[in-house]
């Protein structure tokens, strides 16, 4: 996404030599941020598989060294940025990466604390969206775009405001999409093991279910959610199906897409980034994963 954004923002004839190398270094660093986050996230969540392979901390020759490895990745990022960029470009990129780390760490904290406390009155859509934006939404949408804007010398307050206005909801929807993907937890399709129900996570599915369930269903949710017992997990899955959560997802996905298109169309033609730029980015995010395809695979 970083490379795509930069190439759309730049004229093709200038993308060569040192600038092209900087583009790749920046994209590498953005991706290493994700690796850093995922190593820590898998440790905190007790995840067993990532990309169809055992998680890094579960490898026999890694174990507790995974935390040090994550710290090394973060150090590598700053070293690569320092060697590749100078002046105001380096300062802006450095500050942006620090903002990304802080934002993601805040999201990880509230995600863990909310799950640990098991107070389902806190499972509100407002709290969920706050967690989703910080934990993953910022990184998945705004961060690569802002990185590309800095490298293309188009990073200013107007551009930052437009990015926040257009892409914040898209980033949150990326996390919602992840939540639904976790629900299907098919290693062959998603590359990871789903454990949000067992871990008692504040997910979009859980919040939506609590918004729509009756008193009897809520008691069942409170009794079974956050349990690793297969019977309890299956009861939560059945509750989601009874509440037609999947249909609600597809309806809200379409509504979010259409609302974002309207925001894009309301931008002036000379906006930075341009309406055409945002439409290209939007079309790359919908859908990031075909949850409908996942659903059909599981039910068939």
TrEMBL record:
One GO process term, biological-process aspect? pheromone biosynthetic process
Kindly list the cofactors needed.
Answer: Mg(2+)
- Cellular component, GO, one term: cytoplasm
Question: Which UniProt key words apply to this protein?
Answer: Magnesium, Metal-binding, Transferase
What are this entry's molecular-function GO terms? (2E,6E)-farnesyl diphosphate synthase activity; dimethylallyltranstransferase activity; metal ion binding
* Annotated pathway: Pheromone biosynthesis
Highest rank taxon of the organism: Eukaryota
Instruction: List the InterPro entries.
Output: FPS1-like, Isoprenoid_synthase_dom_sf, Polyprenyl_synt
Q: Which PANTHER family match?
A: FARNESYL PYROPHOSPHATE SYNTHASE (PTHR11525:SF0), FARNESYL-PYROPHOSPHATE SYNTHETASE (PTHR11525)
Family to which the UniProt record says this protein belongs:
Belongs to the FPP/GGPP synthase family.
Q: What is this protein called?
A: Farnesyl pyrophosphate synthase
Q: Which organism is it from?
A: Parnassius mnemosyne
